[in-house]
Amino acid sequence: MTVNLGKIGIWRRADGLNPHLAAEVEELGYGAIWIGGSPPADLELAETLLNATSRIVVATGIVNVWTADAETVARSYQRLATTYPGRFLLGVGVGHPEATQEYHKPYDTLVSYLDELDRGGVAREDRMLAALGPKVLELARDRTVGAHPYLTTPEHTRQARGILGTGPLLAPEQKVVLETDPERAREIARPAVHTPYLQLSNYRKNLRRLGWTEEDIDGGGSDRLIDALAVHGDAATVARGVAAHLEAGADHVCIQALSSDDEPLPVYRALADAFFRSS
């Protein structure tokens, strides 16, 4: 049985997650907590968050195949799947060539990693791939429950759904800024988008595939690109921007809250009202 992510979840780097935040996010009505970055193979943080909650799904976004041994990951998955059935989703991916010295033949490495997860008993319906381009989206479709694209737009979601077909899960990440002043919103969003993402070749290639130009991508990102990658406005406006992914074919969207003080809970609270309690 596929885990139930709900329509909306949250994405946050591991060092910004704790049991208190997890419990409140669950209480607010979100369906999943995505552990951003490259959590280690022991998956201890996922276990801590699962233990602090009773319903919400915890997912990794993503375990890096270069730094987390597949055999260890499989054992950790078995521990979590046994203790918290139906509440853990293993997101895996190859990361970025700029960050990994050993980065070579990433597609073949990803296939081999999935083979090892198979041998370790990691159920297909409990694992997902970070996927941007057509080839890895097809692999996600054929070997996992679906795809978790990062730093994308609803247009990418539409294209990804066309590749995945109607069955697999599609769960993109979307950055959000709860700020009605466009200039102020861009001041908050641009550093988080530019460093490091607009400097990484896989994201640059994907944005060019979507029709963005080098001029849009360089120099910190054009205003138009920043606005697309980090939706801003009041809660209702941001909720509509997130819902655009659902309308384009996503099953679930995980929001990454950006703010000047790095305090996400006020954003989660405001958006929960817009997502779950609006008339």
From TrEMBL:
<dbReference type="GO" id="GO:0016705">
    <property type="term" value="F:oxidoreductase activity, acting on paired donors, with incorporation or reduction of molecular oxygen"/>
</dbReference>
<protein>
    <submittedName>
        <fullName>Putative F420-dependent oxidoreductase</fullName>
    </submittedName>
</protein>
<feature type="domain" description="Luciferase-like">
    <location>
        <begin position="21"/>
        <end position="108"/>
    </location>
</feature>
<dbReference type="InterPro" id="IPR036661">
    <property type="entry name" value="Luciferase-like_sf"/>
</dbReference>
<dbReference type="Pfam" id="PF00296">
    <property type="entry name" value="Bac_luciferase"/>
</dbReference>
<dbReference type="InterPro" id="IPR050766">
    <property type="entry name" value="Bact_Lucif_Oxidored"/>
</dbReference>
<dbReference type="InterPro" id="IPR019922">
    <property type="entry name" value="Lucif-like_OxRdatse_MSMEG_4141"/>
</dbReference>
<dbReference type="InterPro" id="IPR011251">
    <property type="entry name" value="Luciferase-like_dom"/>
</dbReference>
<dbReference type="GO" id="GO:0005829">
    <property type="term" value="C:cytosol"/>
</dbReference>
